[in-house]
Amino acid sequence: MPADPERSARAGRARTWPDEHCTALLALLCAAALAAYVTVSLLKYARLGDGMDLTIFDQAIRSLAHGGPGSTTMKSPGMSVFGDHWHPIIAALVPFYWVWDDPRVLLVVQALCVVWAGWVLGRLARRRVGAGPALAVTAAWLCGIGVQSAVTFDFHEVALGAPLLAHALGAFCRGRWGRFWALAASLLLVKEDMCFLVGGLAIALLIRRRVRTGLALGVLAVTWTAVAVLVVVPRFNPHHVYAYLGSLGTVTVQGVQPAAHPAWYGPLATLGTAAVLLAATGFVAARSALVWGFIGPLAVRAASKNPQHWTAGFHYNLLPMLVLCFAFVDAWPAFVERAAALRARGAVGARARAVRVWRALALPVVVAVALASVPTGSVLHDLAGRPCGAACAELDEATAMIPDGSWVGADVYLTNHLSRRFEVSQWRPADGYLDDLGEPVDAAWLVLNRETTSYENESTGWVQAFLDDPVVRGAHYRVRWSGEAIVVLEREG
Fold this sequence. Notes:
Structural class: mainly alpha
Number of strands: 6
Distance between the termini: 73 Å
Oligomer: single chain
Strand order of the largest sheet: 2-1-3-6-5-4
Largest sheet: 6 strands, mixed
């Protein structure tokens, strides 16, 4: 690491783009991303495209907003969400529910957090690497598959960690170690598994010879997670367990089946995901000590038997991708200096040629990957998606007869539209009508959608199959309302 980071940054700046226009362009890029993600998120919601996770967080935060324990009937009636995961940061969303009590507020906040992180990244990059690389790496973040997959897949608490992580990594790049330690430690409030990311950042501190700070951060991360997993979560869980301890080797979460692959498939698939994400930074991020904040989470996911953990989809890559973008900013000045030094010395070896070629191609690769992510990503896919059918038009009328506060079992894609009025549980024929704790879902009402395959149901015929024999463990349901798509049933007795 050069003795003067700021001077190194100036040396590594691209001279082809006027710095005076960079802030405006960054603002325009962030505004466009915010508009796109808010639009897509709300459009997906309106088309009944959001599922279980949005409803879980909606129920939990609404409960907290009304002085409750953060309960969610989507997991099990009376269960606190903190019995599933330890993510106290969600309490920060309570004031939003005092203003607008609606699950859509979570989608808007999620988009805001992602763009906030992009703005912090772009401003730091402008100072350290210049306008051109700054715009490129910001686009790599905002347009990348890590962000797209997260924003368009319900709501998850990890999005709340994006601004915290961005400010923490910015402090790391600027050598403000105390500020970095405090912000990195606060990431542990996001979720109990943040110890793998924070632990990776602790290793980065050790590499930068901040031994005491790094050790303190690593010990805190391990201790916090151990207490959360072994004490806190079991305290809130009705079965007094942390349900995900078995995820390394066997999947215990209902609805996710163990992968029918050899033992080597998961690590290999995760390695492919890592390569895709690194390509978005032209592989320059690998030169920074911050890359350990990326390696930690990916290594754990490689050991998992949950196939969702291996892919570039879902929300699992949101924060690791942000780490890579800041790692690019951290590594770029020294990388440019080295390439320039080799050229000045007239080095002709294979290694020198490789560095020069890498330097020449890195930034174009970043730009190319960012641009390629847009037309192939989920944003445009959702924008061009098929409009909602009869279910959207019928849902309000169909549910008007159900008393507020009733226990309702519903198709997973309807749950977040019903959670404001009812205690909603997911109705899953494939699971034998059991909740995530294995308890029967004996809902007083059922709201089903003929137009969806629902969760774990391979065809739309499952609704008609149930209507032909509406008996569950001796309890009979009778049809109270039936339309083209929506069917409402009431439990007799």
